[in-house]
Amino acid sequence: MMTSMRFPHASLLLLVAAPAVAAAQNLETETARLLPAGWWKVGNAFEFQTSTEGKEAATPFAVEYGLTDNLELLVEPVPYTTIHPKIGRRATGFGDVEATLTQRFRQETPSAPALAVAAEVKIPTARDSLIGSREPDYTGYLIASKRFGRWDTHVNVAYTVVGSPPGIRLDNLVSFAIAGVYRPNPRLQLFGEVLGNTAATAHAESAAVPEATGGELVGTVGAGRQVGSGLLLYFAVSYDNNSALLLRPGFTLRFR
Length: 256
Description:
Blueprint: H1 11-17, E1 40-45, E2 47-51, E3 54-58, E4 61-68, E5 71-76, E6 81-85, E7 91-93, E8 97-106, E9 114-123, E10 137-148, E11 151-161, E12 168-170, E13 173-185, E14 188-197, E15 202-204, E16 216-227, E17 231-240, E18 245-255
């Protein structure tokens, strides 16, 4: 999931135009590397983002469980979000919750990637209109993952049915993500990814609406260190085509 600055002149559109709200794992790109049956993974991060519009912070959380070796459930709440624009009112509160069910239908082979599909629903738990749109969104993913030596690569294409608030009709989104992870040794990993989506053009039905936002393109680089058998500590930096800079330290923990 990805954070995007959300301020008054285009607040509603920026809420739905970004790939997502926040990320509690080192990669926002979905992967076909699913947890084994009965395994858990929890993650937490602190996100701080700044741009010419203002500042924003969030603490996303993730709980992941392997239902079977090829079926996984992920739930991602955002317990705390704060938005401080340079102009206009501020907002602090609980964010939206996303739930994703991922099914792997093809195992990786030496010549072909692992393939999976995922269905995600955004549950509109945010009460402040600067933090959430108060409408559900529904996203479907096609996911491919392939290893090349010490490189692990992941590619996504997705389609989001965007929930439109009363009086506004928003276009649905097409998005993509490409990620690579390089492991020079078993303890260290270096990663990067690029995410993008089409524009969410707004159509007024009963009231004036903010100017529509264009599509978004986000690049991320980061590094992680394995501590013990299941704990990963990481730090990532993201920059997007709206000149917003995001810093994200966090951790993930796998256990059974």
